[in-house]
Write a structure and sequence with these properties.
Blueprint lengths: L6 E5 L3 H13 L4 E6 L6 H9 L4 E2 L4 H4 L7 H10 L2 H10 L4 E3 L4 E4 L4 H14 L3 E4 L13 E4 L5 H9 L4 E7 L1 E5 L2 H4 L5 E9 L5 E8 L3 E3 L1 H9 L1 H6 L4 E6 L5 H14 L15 H10 L12 H12 L1 E10 L5 E6 L4 E2 L4 E2 L5 E3 L13 H22 L1
Parallel strand pairs: 1-2, 1-7, 2-6, 7-18
Antiparallel strand pairs: 3-5, 4-5, 8-15, 9-12, 9-14, 10-11, 10-13, 11-12, 13-14, 16-17
Amino acid sequence: MHGKGKRIAVIGGGAAGMFGAIRLAELLPEAEVIVFEKSKNLLSKVKVSGGGRCNVTHACFEPKELVKFYPRGSKELLSPFFSFQPSNMIYWLLDRGVETHTEEDGRMFPSTNKSQTIIDCFLNEAEKLGVQIKTEYAADLSFLQSYDAVLMTAGSSELVWKDLEEHGVPCVPRVPSLFTFHINDKSLHELSGISVPQAQLEIRDTKIKTNGPMLITHWGLSGPAVLKASAFGALALAEKNYEATVRINWINQNFNDTLDELKDLRESHPKKMCVTFNPYQLSSRLWNWHLQRADLFLKDWANSSNKSLEILAESLVRCDLPMTGKSTFKEEFVTAGGVDLKHVNFQTMEHKLVPNLYFAGEVLNIDAVTGGYNFQAAWTTAWIAAQGIADKLAE
């Protein structure tokens, strides 16, 4: 595949755009590949991701498992992940001298723990392969007239989606994903900084249920269980205007077992103060918070009534808290919505209604939970798009 005389525009110089451009230049060495980025800087999201360390992907190497981390796009990504998945990305980086390491939770980072390592790798590859880069250049779909193919990777941008819709590309309405919960409970805010290793969380009157580590903050709740709920519940929570009842099971047990345990405690340790005898591995401040809710803070177990033990069990495993809003999680701003997937051919990433227009990355209605999955979707869709363009131009 040589691509002599062919011109390809890549709109967007982020993760998907740069990776796609590099792959295009590898597949079509004689083609002109030009990246147009509207800001001054390329790969700006790569730079800040993972606290400046760049969480490049996740150590999940089974496509059928991998797709479960995508609230939107899971069905469509299955086949692409069989072509290019996290192991392919790791080897691609390794071939270019970038080693990675895996953390306990499966997130993968460059061994240097610096996002600049990934940026330098991409920029060096692009330069070596002759990819042209034009920054501070706001490109749009008028480019379809003057290029043989356009790869659209413009990320989350209302202006871009509006332009796409005007050019006959249907888009799904956008709502935020990956956010933390505002909880209107001042007594909870005083527990800021406390984490629970394994909580269960559900949003009442929806099907959203998640579990995992959870963190109490000075405005409410954060941590993996909350972020996962925000991703899978992005549409439902937007409809509720981010006002809902969040039910938390702090100890991962059912109500009846918990109540039985508390009654047993009353029998076996009647003279012990409730506050000094914490049978669950909760921080003392959080345990005291539950005791105060049940009016047991200054009592011994002998003086705990059946009613107060029921309230305590309820607080531990069916704790209802009012959600009154949301906050963006660090720099991990992710949007649910974008280019409607039913009009994209996931064998090539070409749009079914607009020929020679290809898509990759966040501009699509694909998003994932935090942990490197959003970047992996960018790498995979860009890889497939580059191959699709190269195959078509080679014809």
